[in-house]
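ESCALATION

Customer reports they have been waiting on this structure for their group meeting. Please prioritize. Original submission:
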Amino acid sequence: MNPSDGSKVTKTLRAVQALRAIAALSVLAFHIGQWMPAPKAIGAAGVDLFFVISGFVLWLAVSRKDQSPAAFLHDRAVRILPLYWLATAMVAALVLIDPANLPTIQLTWPHLAASFALIPHNDPAGDPFPILPVGWSLTYEAVFYALVATSLMFDPGRRFGTLALGLMMVWLLGYVAYPLGPLFANPLMLEFLAGAVIARLYVAGRLPGFWISLGLGVLGLGLLVLQTDAVNDPGYWRALVWGGPCALIVASAVGLEAAGHWRDLAKVSVLGDASFSLYLWHWPIVWLVGRWLAPHHGWLFAGLATSLALIAALLSRQYLEKPSLKALRRRTSV
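Update from on-call: job pushed to the front of the queue and completed.
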C-alpha cells in the first residue's frame, strides 16, 4: 500500500478507532481497580496508548491538509474544550453540592481557572491534577498541540524536525526546572513523537507487511501482559516501559490495516467514536458509584460502574459531543 498517493487513505482508520476504544476501556478498568482489593497499575497504560495515537493522528492530519497554526489550534479547541469544560463544571458542581461526593477535589479560584485553561499546575494538595483529575493528560496534549502549531510556521520539509526538536526540548526542560517535570516536561512527551514517526512511515508507505506488523503487535502486547501484576507505574521510565509497547501496538494495527488485514468490528468502532466522552465522564461516575456502594467494592461495583460509564459515554457522544462539534464548526472559523 502506498498511502502517499491519497487514493487509498481512508478518512478514519478503523484500527485507530479500535485502539481508542481499548485505551479508554483500559483507563476505566484502572480507575475501577483502584477501588478493588487487588489494584493493578497497568490499565493506566491506556493514557500512553492515547498519546501515541494522538501523535499519529495529528501528524497524519497536518500531512494531509495544509493548515495555518491558528486554524489548527482552533480545530483542536473546538474538538476538546467544550466537553472538557462541561465535565469539569460538573465535577465542580458535585463538590459544591456536597464535598463528600468527591473528597479528593479542593476548589479554589486559581485551581479552577488553571483547570479550565488546561494550564499545567499543582492542585491545592500539591498534586499535578486539574479539577477533573483525568484532565492531566489533556494538559500534555495542549503542550503537544502548541508544538504542532509551531511546526506549521515552517515549510513542510522542516516541520517534522521542528516538532521532534520541540518535544525533546520540553522533555529536557524538566531537567533544568525540575518542578516542571511532574507537570508535563518529562519523557511522556516522546510518546507523541513515536506516534508522529509511525504516521510518517504510513504516509510514505514504509510500514512493514502483514507478518512483521503482526509480530510487532504480539511483541507489544506481550510486553504489557508481562507487567499485569504491577501495582505502581514505572515512573520516569514509563515512556519506555509502557509507551514503547504501546507504540509497537499502534504500528502493528496501522500496518495490518494498510496491508488489508484489519477486520472492522462495528461495536468497537462506535466505542472508539465515544472514547473521549468515556475518558472524561468515567472518573466521576466511578467515584460516585464507589462511594455509594462503600465498602462493598467487588464485581457488583465493577459491573455497575462500567455499565453506567459506557451508557454515559454513548449518550454524551450522541447528544453532546456530536451536536456541539457540528454547531461550533459551522459557526466558527479561522
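Sent to customer with the following note: The chain has 13 helices and no strands.
Escalation resolved.
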